[in-house]
Amino acid sequence: MAAELTQNQIQLIEESFAAVAPQGAELVASFYDRLFNDFPAVKPMFANTTPAEQQKKLLSSLVLVVQNLRKPEVLGPALEQLGARHNEYGAVPTHYDAVGSTLLKTLAEYAGDVWGSELEEAWTAAYGAISKKMIDSAAVAANCS
Ligand code: HEM
What we know:
Blueprint: H1 7-20, H2 24-38, H3 51-67, H4 72-89, H5 93-111, H6 117-144
Helix pairs in contact: 1-6, 2-3, 2-5, 4-6, 5-6
The structure holds protoporphyrin IX containing FE.
Protoporphyrin IX containing FE binds at residues 42, 45-46, 48-49, 54, 57-58, 61, 82, 85-86, 89, 91, 95-96, 99, 130-131, 134.
């Protein structure tokens, strides 16, 4: 899946992620505040989890994705399974757009001076490829059932 990203983009993502990692917990909390504020319709989907649990899950999945950008053979199957589970949670493509734009805004806020058009393009490409993989596998799972 990382085939869609250039080596330079992968490097930019790794560096920016390392730069925001010390503020990871704050970043994730801010992501959810922004998501629920801008897209209140998705809030009930998270009723079965606590904010603390959900924040840990998002952070660990971000770490998994960033660590495996150079290993599509690891990332591909993991995202397929994640996409199928998200189909069960009721996530649809418009939700992925909401999560993507919220993630980008939150990253821009925490990356500060480091953020620029190159980084924005790199994260947009990465999120686009990740969400496409998850949405496509969810569609396959739905067709099979
Ligand atoms: C690239 C995009 C996304 C990633 C990497 C991601 C990652 C995760 C992870 C790792 C979990 C933990 C449970 C599991 O592994 O199945 C999770 C749960 C969940 N996600 Fe996502 N997610 C993404 C997009 C979305 C979107 C677009 C929605 C819809 C608004 C969503 C809604 C949920 C819900 C409702 C749960 C279950 C919470 C619970 O009841 O425990 N996610 N997500």
